[in-house]
Amino acid sequence: EENDLFKTHRREITILFFDLRGFTAFSDSAEPEVVMEFLRHYHSEMGQLIFKYEGTLERFMGDGIVVIFNDPIRCEEHTHKAARMALEMRDRVKELRTAWRKKGYDLDLGVGFSAGYATLGTMGFEGRMDYGTVGNLPNLASRLCAEAKGGQILTDQKTMSRIEDGFESEPIDQPNLKGIHRPVAAFN
């Protein structure tokens, strides 16, 4: 049963990508030790919220974070839960920004998320396996994240229609999402 989690399978999930705007400039100008210490603190703050909402951390990539809901752990209303977590993370970063600015770091959080079917399973090789997801869904969430300005949480029409009863949103101008050739209606 435990190993079944890691077999390749399709499931309906919500996936979120988080990224810090301004991180490249910050890491180019700060000492590597300062960057590592910053990331440890930032990851710990965000990690607490991932645990609180029972998301699954897919991975950290520098300042980037990928979180999945509804796999491997099933959860009801996973898209609502994901949206609530994203809002709380954005608010937490708003608080952290005060201290960051005093140190001269101009950083803010951009978020992209989408819900739908994806293929999940393990990738890698014996001795170094990672759990992850492939397909259009993570690609869409990643591109929405790249498009998000600091403080923005972007999602697509299909995902928004699942949660519009519980969240306010505003349409944004047609984003030009790299590598996605169909038009995507996006919402903040």
How many DSSP H or I helices?
Answer: 5
* Proportion of strand residues: 25-35%
Specify the structural class: alpha+beta
**Helix coverage percent of residues?**
25-40%
Major beta sheet, specifics? 8 strands, mixed
Low-confidence stretches: none
Number of strand elements: 8
Shape: globular
SSE succession: EHHEEHEEHEHEE
Round the Cα radius of gyration to an integer and report it. 17 Å
What distance lies between the first and last C-alpha atoms, to the nearest angstrom?
Answer: 39 Å
Average pLDDT number? 93
Topology:
Elements: E1 9-21, H1 23-29, H2 32-52, E2 56-61, E3 64-69, H3 78-102, E4 108-125, E5 128-134, H4 136-147, E6 153-156, H5 157-163, E7 171-172, E8 186-187
Parallel strand pairs: 4-6
Antiparallel strand pairs: 1-3, 1-4, 2-3, 4-5, 6-8, 7-8
Helix pairs in contact: 2-3
Detailed description of the structure:
- The protein is of the alpha+beta class.
- It has helices at residues 23-29, 32-52, 78-102, 136-147, 157-163, and strands at residues 9-21, 56-61, 64-69, 108-125, 128-134, 153-156, 171-172, 186-187.
- The chain has five helices and eight strands.
- Strands 1, 2, 3, 4, 5, 6, 7 and 8 form an eight-stranded mixed sheet that branches.
- Strand 2 and strand 3 form a beta hairpin.
- Helix 2 runs antiparallel to helix 3.
- The radius of gyration is 17 Å and the shape is globular.
Task: From the structure above, extract its key features.
single chain, 188 residues, eight-stranded mixed beta sheet, 5 helices
